[in-house]
Amino acid sequence: MDKTFLDFALPFWLFLIFACFSLIATFFYYRKTNPELELRSKLALGALRFLALLFLFFFFTEPILNFIQNRIEKSKVLFLVDNSMSMKIKWDVPSEDGKIQTVDKFSQTKQAITQTGLENFSKYSSEYWIFDSNFKLYNQFSFDSLNFNGLETNLAKTLKRINNLKREENIGAIFLITDGIVNSGENPASISEKMGIPIYTIAVGDSIPPKDIALTNIVTNETGFVEKTQPVKVSIKSFGFDDKEIKVQLFEGKNLVSEKTIILNKTTEDYSVVFDYTPKTEAFVKLTAKVENIPNEFSVDNNSQTQIIKILKNQKKYILLSGYPNPDLSYIKSLILQEKGSELVAFTQKQGAEFYEPKPVKKDFEDAKVIILLGFPISSSPSQLLDWVRDEWIKGKPVLFISQLETDYNKLKGYEEILPFNVASNSKREYTFVANFKQSQIGNPILKIIPGEESIKILNQLPPIFRTELFVRPKLESEILASVKVGNADLKEPFILTYEFQNKKSAAILGYGLYRWRLLGHSLQELMNQPNKEIDPGSTIIVNLLNWLSSSEEFVRLKIKPTKTKFNQFEQVTFNGQVYDETLSPIDNAIVKVKIRKGDSQVEKLLPQVASGLYSGSLGTFDIGEYSYIGEAYRDSKLIGSYTGKFIVEKSNLELTDFRTRFDFLRYVSQNSGGKFFYWNEVNKVKEELNSLSLPNKVITKKEEKNLWNSLPLLIVSILLFGIEWFFRRMKGLL
């Protein structure tokens, strides 16, 4: 039964009250007129006024006109066929009687379709879907629609689309022909459970894979630094090889970086090799991992993987402001200078507002990566320097504060926005304490001293240091890494804090005498009988803290780059861009161009604007190879800036990394959705199931809504009624 009715944002009784009020107000308005009108004219004008008010209120009550249509829909059966590359692979495997038999997924698929009557199914309405990384729909099945060239298998995308369609269609059952190898998208098992549609899975392939080696993945940081070693993890799968020694190599471009050897055996399938890679120059670098080709392996197309990474100069400029010479000053300076590529400019205050050489210059603060306040400010420190620090912090420069005996916290209060705490009170009365590092911080990378979970235990052995009677209130966004402990009592006062909010970072160490921490390092070396091993937990935590601060990503006004650095052949290459002005406000209506080069050829595309200051678009597919790009942004024909980079396009080997049919997965999908599982050669069982299907009709409810409150005709009617009333009032000479 079809229905049409109105809904209101306000209660209907309120509409009735207003209608009554409008009727009464109109009655009293026209009860007496000047000049007096005949009853017929009063009724006509009153009706116009009443209707105009009613329509006006009707407009503001946000009325919605609802249409509900019910129809009886007959059941439909969907047949899904996997069209990915792995479905055309064939190989030889030993049978139970010792003979060799061929696994041919294409032949198995063809048999499962033709001998079950699936292609000519007519008991219910049917649709045929083929899927790989995407899906296509056919009303009639044809083997010509199958080419088995799909580079990925994304079953979840197809099931999600069907799940959305079931609200408009009566989908009674799904028959799925696949090897169950899913290598893209979400987990289809969880989607199939929620669909409420029985899925009958027909498995093709075999559980015994062909004899093969596959390099399945290469993982490393997308951004590296000159002269800073980073790990490159290479994952390898092996099937059928035993006691076989193979070489795994890592290349930078065409240059061999490192080579390692692994021994394959039948009982192990998964292997990993970790290379140490140390970039030498600033550039975009192509890293390629390879395993050597072995005679008689099934495929050599899956023996390499490539990754593009960006190498930056490992140059960190630290500004250190110290209120006066002290032992911690030399200690902190030595920690910074021992790191390769680090530059330190230290400004140390002496009597009054004077400084030892060099003198502070604002340009140094503007060029800094991290600013350190060591016992700064003191009472005689110039406020101008703190102004410079605050200006740079607002721009995103991180700040580390380390307290000292003579720190002037009253002067610091005016600059608390740059700190992870607010000062409650301070007295120069001095006491010793030990750091109490929390077990809840066991996974925090700043506190990682050694591999495993012993770092906190070691840090809690650090020697006592000093502190004034300082009381602070941590900010809501701050994290307390350690507190103050005196004897066995935890004072609950923060000792080490970090702060990160809205692209700004700061940290604080609220104690001094940090140089004493090196004593524990020497003691540990003696206890562990490893005099040559570098063990210095106190220094390590400070270096980790500096690295955490310096790793903050600087805001870039212009950034134009691809969504990833490696695309598969036939995959759409998509670029994103952000464009901001000098005040960090987004720039709209800019012309954003991307020029992509490979050898002598060049392609130029425009990125459309998708949001304020944001631009994005797909530039199409590209042939296999290495590409460089230049992104440019223009406003009023003037160049705002440019951004460069590289990406690569490779032949996808996702379908060549594993060949075994996922029988357990397919059983799970069928059982949890209310369907059944079949092997490809159980054609009679499939045929019986098709013939015995009994699928009910279903009432499909379609609901449409039309917003009348934003409908211009309603407002026009109300204004028109007021206008007609005014016209007749003028004709009658009413005041």
List the helices and strands and how they pair.
Elements: E1 3-7, H1 12-31, H2 39-60, E2 64-73, E3 76-82, E4 90-94, E5 100-104, H3 105-114, E6 125-131, E7 135-138, H4 155-165, E8 171-178, H5 188-195, E9 199-203, E10 212-219, E11 223-225, E12 230-239, E13 244-252, E14 255-264, E15 270-277, E16 283-291, E17 304-312, E18 316-322, H6 327-337, E19 342-348, H7 362-367, E20 370-374, H8 383-394, E21 399-402, H9 409-412, E22 421-437, H10 455-459, E23 465-474, E24 478-486, E25 489-501, E26 504-509, H11 518-527, H12 537-550, E27 558-562, E28 566-568, E29 574-579, E30 591-598, E31 601-606, E32 609-611, E33 614-618, E34 625-635, E35 638-650, H13 663-673, E36 677-679, H14 683-691, E37 698-707, H15 712-732
Parallel strand pairs: 3-6, 3-8, 8-9, 9-36, 11-17, 18-19, 18-20, 20-21, 21-26, 28-35
Antiparallel strand pairs: 1-2, 2-37, 4-5, 6-7, 10-12, 12-15, 13-14, 13-16, 16-17, 22-23, 22-24, 24-25, 25-26, 27-29, 29-33, 30-31, 30-34, 32-33, 34-35
Helix pairs in contact: 1-2, 2-15, 4-5, 5-13
Q: What are its keywords?
A:
single chain; 735 residues; alpha/beta; 9-stranded mixed β-sheet; 6-stranded mixed β-sheet; 15 helices; 24% helix
Please explain how this structure is put together:
It is built from 15 helices and 37 strands. Strand 20, helix 8 and strand 21 (399-402) form a beta-alpha-beta unit. Helices cover 24% and strands 37% of the residues. The protein has a 9-stranded mixed beta sheet with strand order 19-18-20-21-26-25-24-22-23, sandwiched between helices. It is flat. Mean pLDDT is 86; it is low at 525-533. It has 735 residues and is an alpha/beta fold.
